[in-house]
C-alpha cells in the first residue's frame, strides 16, 4: 500500500481546488521613486523597467496602477539639495511632501505609504545624523520624528520608518500622536538586514553611503534570534505592521516572525531580487512571469500578508489581461 499524491494533481481544476496559497493584487505594494527637478523619466540601469519619475509622471503611474487594482504605493524621494541632516526630508515643500499632496488630490483611493528615512536626503548617504563617522541614534530619532510628522501633514496614510535606529517606533508614535495623527499607522521595517541585495536600490534612490556601510544599524544576515528581538521590541513600541526585508533569502525569518506576532506582516521583495530575475529573463534563461509568481507565492506561503515589490504593476497588468480574455 502506498499513497497516491498524484490523485489531487490530475487536472488544473483539481489543482485549483486544493491550492493553499493565493496571491492577490490587494496584497501588493508598489514602490515609486520620485526625483525633484527631473524633466523626463529615467530608467534605473540596474533595474530594467523601474524609473526615476518626475512628479507629473508619478501621478500618471499611480493612476494607471490604481486602474489595475493596486491599492497601495510606497514613496521614495530624491531631492535636489542634500545636506548633513537631510533637511529636505522634512521640508514642507520637499519632494516627498509635494508628491503626497499631489497624489492625494489625484488618486484619493490609493493608500500612500511614505518611506521615512534620511539616506536619500543626506550628503553622506547614511540613514541618520552623524557624530564623526558614527550614526548618532538619538539625534537621528529627532530628525526622523520631524520627517514622519511632515509626511503625515502632507497626506501620508501610513508612515514606514526604514532607518533602523533603536526606538524609532516609540519616538515616531509619540511624535505623530502629539501632532494629532493618532490615526496614522506605522509600518516598521522591523527586521532589516544589512543586505547586499539593496545595491540597485541605491542607484535608484541615489543613496549609497559615501563611506563605510550600514552594518552598525542594519542586521547581520546570519541572525534569526536577533530578528525575533527586533520584531518584539517594535511591536511593544506600537508598530501596526512589521516588515522583514529582503524577502526570498529570509523566508525562514518571515515564518518565525509570523509565528511570534499577530500583526500584519509585510515582506519587501527588494531591488536585488528584482534585478536578478530581470537579468536572467533578459538573457532568456528564465520564464520571467512564472518565476515572479513562484517567488511571490513562496513569500506568502512563508507567512507574509503583504509584499512590497517592483513587479506589482506588471503582475496586476498580467492578471487583468487574463481576465479580459
Ligand atoms: C533605506 C531603504 C533601503 C531600501 C528601502 N529603504 C536601502 C538601504 O537600506 O540602503 C532598499 C529597498 C530595495 O533594495 O529595494 N532607507
From TrEMBL:
Q: What does this protein do?
A: Catalyzes an early step in the biosynthesis of tetrapyrroles. Binds two molecules of 5-aminolevulinate per subunit, each at a distinct site, and catalyzes their condensation to form porphobilinogen.
Q: What is this protein called?
A: Delta-aminolevulinic acid dehydratase
Q: What is the lineage of its organism?
A: Bacteria, Bacillati, Bacillota, Bacilli, Lactobacillales
Q: How does it assemble?
A: Homooctamer.
Catalytic residues identified in the record: 192 (schiff-base intermediate with substrate), 245 (schiff-base intermediate with substrate)
Biological process GO annotation list?
Answer: protoporphyrinogen IX biosynthetic process
What GO molecular function terms would the record report?
porphobilinogen synthase activity; zinc ion binding
What SMART domains does the record tag this protein with?
Answer: ALAD
Q: Which family does it belong to?
A: Belongs to the ALAD family.
Which spans are transmembrane here? Answer: none
Task: Tell me which UniProt keywords the record has, alphabetically.
Answer: Heme biosynthesis, Lyase, Magnesium, Metal-binding, Porphyrin biosynthesis, Zinc
The entry's Mg(2+)-binding residues are 230
Q: Which residues bind 5-aminolevulinate 2?
A: 271, 310
Domain of life of the organism in this record?
A: Bacteria
**Which cofactors go with this protein?**
Zn(2+)
Q: What is its EC number?
A: 4.2.1.24
Catalytic activity line of the entry: 2 5-aminolevulinate = porphobilinogen + 2 H2O + H(+)
Q: Which Pfam families match?
A: ALAD (PF00490)
What organism does this protein naturally occur in? Streptococcus ovuberis
Where is Zn(2+) annotated to bind? 117, 119, 127
Name of the coding gene: hemB
Keyword Transmembrane listed? The answer is no
Entry's Gene Ontology cellular component terms: cytosol
